[in-house]
Amino acid sequence: MRISYRTGLTVAAATLATPALAGTGTVSFEIPKIDTFPYRKPYVAVWLEDGGGQQVKTLAVLHDQARIGGRWIPELRSWWRTGGRTMTMPADGISRPTQAPGRQTVGIPGIDQLAPGRYSVVVEAAREKGGRELVKVPFELKRGKSASASASGDAELGKVSVSIRP
Q1: Topology given in CATH for the domain delimited by 20-165
Q2: What is the reported pLDDT for 52?
Q3: Which residues contact 110 (CB under 8 A, 6 or more apart)?
């Protein structure tokens, strides 16, 4: 009993002494309703690139997590070529199930640990028996400053927004 009490105090004290994260970031994107039969939910990859176009990190991959679902992941061609093929899927904290049409939100973990500079959030969507689309949203990351940017897709993706808060 006594050990658990001390452990609880230690955890509480450590939590109080830990500084709050310096910044947060989110990516919002819209999966539009496409009038087709049969409609298949798109696979979507969301990742962060530096100013030179190199992948910094994968933020999310929405895909069918069943055994057969892995067959279609390479259809997210740009993501697959820039780093997806080296990942083991499903990946903890990154893999998510495909989503129905509507607005989706993905966090940007570790945004406060990135060096200031130019970055882009890239969202790629591919639908079985459907189209494929890639939307790139560039933004400037500055210490202690908010940033927001957006772009829109034409068919497989709607509006894509990036929001960074200090």
Answers
A1: Immunoglobulin-like (2.60.40)
A2: 95
A3: 57
